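Fig. S4 source data, part A: sequence.
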Amino acid sequence: MKARLWLGLSLLCPTLALAVPEEARIPGGVALVPLSGVTSAQAPDVRYGDDRVMVLPGAELGEDERWVAVVGIPLSASADELQELHFADGGAAFHIRHKEYEAQYLTVPNKRHVEPNPDDIKRWRRESAEMKAAFKRWSEPAEPVTSFILPAQGPFSSPFGLRRFFNEQPRNPHSGLDIAAPHGDPIQAPAPGEVVAVGDYFFNGKTVIIDHGYGLTTMYCHLSEIDVALGDRLETGDRIGAIGATGRVTGPHLHWSVSLNNTRVDPLLFVDGH
């Protein structure tokens, strides 16, 4: 079982403590960065690039700093570059180490899912803008979400970060975790949140995106059916839909993405025991 850190939230709720993600300072990982010199009673507005970062109290991290930034690191980040955070009282920086992800070669039967035509590209651009808006959404629920249960049961068929080749053509790295399961098996909400996007997208098929607050969102792709609607508020374990094979797939499975500060990160960093 992975070691997990716990952040006391006495400043927000005297009896609440959060299990924070496993720290992995690599591309596609998560960094826990103490914010030196920030003593305000309210969490500062911290930015990593153009995106706002989750900030939690750090009283139980063994640090003198009052606040800790929980930062998603892009798969494109380089170990040769210093990663910088910016906020009103100053800034913070951290290093990451190199991570070489394995390659995966897939044969996609629908050639348009590898070489889309102009109409497909127009559709994908519209859908991509909708998804990006959901990933950039910022909300502040009373209780921050920092850990998940698995949304489906089954073997992990494609891990996060794979360097992917479709019909021998290179594509973007795998930005989620694939869970293989029979067609029609249930998909559940891994934590409380609000449904902020629902669609049937060209590449992703039937898709749901949930906002869990403070820059943390999750996406569920290739569903056979969707059982939620835009604006629905979900609790842990509520049904989202069912396993399917819609969009660009080679068989039924769930593609589960976790996004932190508009950055896709390894979902298993948020799941205890994996």
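Fig. S4 source data, part B ends here. The helical segments are 118-135.
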